[in-house]
Amino acid sequence: MYKVKVDNVSKIYDINRNRIQKVLSLISFGWLYKAKPFYALRDINFEVHAGDSVGILGLNGSGKTTLSDLIAEATVPSKGNIHINGRTSLIAISAGLNNELTGEENIRIKCLMHGLSEKDINDRYDDILKFSELGDFIKQPIKSYSSGMRSRLGFAIAIHTDPDILIVDEALSVGDETFANKCIDRMRDFQAQGKTIFFVSHATGQIRQFCNKAVWVQYGEMKQFGDMQDVVKSYAEFVGQYKNLTRDEQIEYKDKMVAEQMAKSQRLVLPKEKINMLSVAVGSGLFLLMVLGILIQVFTVFN
Amino acid sequence: MKNVFALLKENFENLPLIWKLSLYNLKASYANHYLGLLWTILMPAAQVGVFYVVFGLGLRGDRGDVQNVPFLVYLITGIFAFGFISGCVNATSNAISSQINLVTKMKFPSSILLSMSVMNNVISFIIMTLIVLVISLVNGYSEPSHYLVWFYFMFATIAFSYSIGLIMSSVNILIRDFKNVQANVMRMFFFVTPIFWEPEGRPPLMSIIMAFNPFAYLLMTFRNALIFDGPAFYGTAADHIYFWSITLFLFFVGVQVHYRYKDRLVDYL
Known about the structure:
The complex is a heterodimer. Chain A is an alpha/beta fold. Chain A has helices at residues 19-27, 64-71, 103-113, 118-132, 147-159, 177-192, 205-210, 228-244, 247-266, 277-302; strands at 2-14, 37-49, 53-57, 79-84, 88-92, 165-169, 196-200, 213-218, 221-227.
């Protein structure tokens, strides 16, 4: 039984969206408007089982964060489906914390939003505080925190919300090494409990440390998925070659790849949205009702 | 159609969560104040004080009674109720854009954000209502059984502002300009709604505008319930039909717009 199944998933952004077209698309529900689509991700397919730890590898701008947002259900795919069995929790550097509130209040508010009960929160509060190493600073508003403190708090909250699937988006690069090691220890506990972890990074070091599988995304496409050793090996080979290029050649290569990505996106035909006839019928009915209501009011007022 | 039920179910199931999160929001807005939550009572009380000094002590001359209540009471109920109605409309319209950083990195139903902003306004409005209730009880303005219409007023206001909020919370993100348009429209409504002027003895145009102004309908419903000694409900049958047919249509359109854009709003930011 799979834990996460990414089934032919594409994420398309519209890069040709000027204001008039936005309005047109809004009022015509996508019928009077031609999009200029850009594939951020294209036909990604893989299946992950419970207990797997998957590294997501790739250069900058290859779609790693888009993929992790999709797995965390923070955005939805434009095409294809993602099936997820269980609750997800995403840890990113820009974790969604409220700057005005204190650390303690943020812990409580975030846990509530993740669906924990008050009792659960009280039980876990001390653990979270201890893990975040914030001590007395927990009573201070978040806006006075350093970026390291913030990411520590974000990490501490996220791993205490009982996720079945944990997604770590380069969040460890902010904290110092002792904290990073503590997080890795904690993630090993997760592994031992048979939970699923996604670990996003452009460097192979931490992925080598504890992932058993890896995905390599390259300019929106899945280059390789499989055993961590194999993927990391071919990724490292690629990076080695890439680094050997001169700086101009590197830029040239990137431009070429992005242009290719663009060209492929142009051939794409976006499916037109289906119009739900029931909704149209109910909508028109209610519209007529409103017109009737206005007419009745007009007659009463002017008589 | 199934979106309508999904939205109602989503909000109903998360009611305890909405309540707790609103309390936190309220706390956050007064977090750096020494008096803290006391301000939720002090703010409306201070408002009453200011209006008492300006209008109650006769600084602007005696304005006479409106129906059975002094002008001061008429004005206070108008300011409180309109503040609540427009507060709900503005808060729901900006609910998603102002709180998006809390939810971009997680799965969270965004219609809950709208309910939270309504709940914030409800909490502070309950305190204002209590102030008006005390004034009304002490002076014996309205019949106690009429106070129950307050619940109808709350339901109507929430339904109306939530419907507008569903549409505008998406539109405000897609097209930022609408924020400014909306602010000015609300300002206009402040003047065409009978807050500080009484409907009697106005030019006929004013009463025609009033008949087509849903804010006036809500405002007068509040006054009929709490301070006027007339009928419990305000308005003719046509007024009720007019208000609810518009609200129902706006709600339906709002649900469609909301469900079409809720998962993609992050892409537009």
